[in-house]
Amino acid sequence: MPESAIVKYLCGKLGSTNREELVANLDFGDVSTVNEIISNRDRFANAHYNGEKRLIAKTALRLCRRLVCAGPGCSSLHLCKTYLYGECQFVPGRRAKCSFSHDLHSEHNARLLRTHGLEDLDKKEICVLLLQNDMALLPDVCFDYNNTGCRDGCKRIHICEQYLRRNCCCSRAHDFYEPQPFEMLQKSRIPNDLMASMKQLYINKKVLSSIEHKAKQAGQANQVPGTVGAMDGAMGGVGGAGGAFAIGGAGALRGGGGGMRRPPRGKAGTFI
Ligand SMILES: [Zn+2]
Ligand SMILES: [Zn+2]
Ligand SMILES: [Zn+2]
Ligand SMILES: [Zn+2]
User: How far is the CA of 68 from the centre of ligand 1 (A)?
Assistant: First the structure.
């Protein structure tokens, strides 16, 4: 099914890709077919940032947070988070036994993957998809750190929000390997081989959380036909300087809003 193929493709590209390139990719069908497929707002989100139109993979699937879950009625994946990210050191039979499932294709999980049209994705692709969609997985970027300043012991991540949007040379952290971001990500069990993907995954997460937030505020306005452009808007955040991310449903890709700052030519691909 082309829709699943596009989701799989996006996950292989760290969860998002240049929208125009994807539409021009004949592997997924002609332009009108692809445009129709990616108009499904349950599975795709459009973003316009850093001078580029991006298509981001969405899912409603989440990881179950319960150590002991009632089971059949649960609509979330039953999977060890550490195993999802890579390898869980507590492999059953070795050391202490991990309390969580390491079976992505258990009956419960396989049913959910089919329900969400994700049965063709491998563990790595599902990991990317969940990291940017399940807001409980990656620690949030600290608002205080980006504004008035924060203190030691904060559980949010101290990284410059401007850096996620465009090149920045302020005094805040611009590297996920800086001590505080690195420690927070280690505590969240992000393995080293995912560290290089953090910037793009955080951008995708930020765009998707903004869409979710706006949808709640607008009373699910994004579900109503004829509201093209209604979701366009700026990312909340640093000092009201939002606007670097303009978001919208398919077909609603506009000029990026008033706050949009187009970077110099040649730098549009900074975030790819
Ligand atoms: Zn559960
Ligand atoms: Zn485990
Ligand atoms: Zn903080
Ligand atoms: Zn900065």
Answer: 8
Token pair for 200:
């793009």
Kindly state the DSSP code that residue 44 receives in the 8-state scheme: E
Q: Ligand 2 centroid vs 78 CA: distance in angstroms?
A: 11
| 190 within 8 A of 137, measured Cβ to Cβ | no
| 3-state per-residue secondary structure call for 185-214 | HHHCCCCHHHHCCHHHHHHHHHHHHHHHHH
Cα 139–Cα 204–Cα 65 angle in degrees, nearest 5: 40
How wide is the angle at C-alpha 123 spanned by C-alphas 45 and 112, nearest 5°? Answer: 70
pLDDT at 235: 42
Expressed in angstroms and rounded, the spacing between residue 153 Cα and the centre of ligand 3 is: 8
Q: Which residues contact 191 (CB under 8 A, 6 or more apart)?
A: 85, 86, 87
**Which ligand has the nearest atom to the CA of 90?**
2
| DSSP H helical ranges for 13-70 | 19-24, 31-37
Q: What are the strands, taking DSSP E only, across the chain?
A: 16-18, 44-49, 52-57, 245-248
| 158-185: burial string, b at 16+ Cβ within 10 Å, e else | bbbbbbbbbeeeeebbbebeeebbbebb
DSSP annotation string for 257-270? -TT--PPPTT-TTT
Question: Other CB atoms closer than 10 Å to residue 22's CB: what's the count?
Answer: 21
**Interval 78-123: pLDDT, tens:** 999 999 999 897 765 565 678 899 999 999 999 999 999 999 999 9
Measure 239 CA to ligand 4 centroid, in angstroms: 12
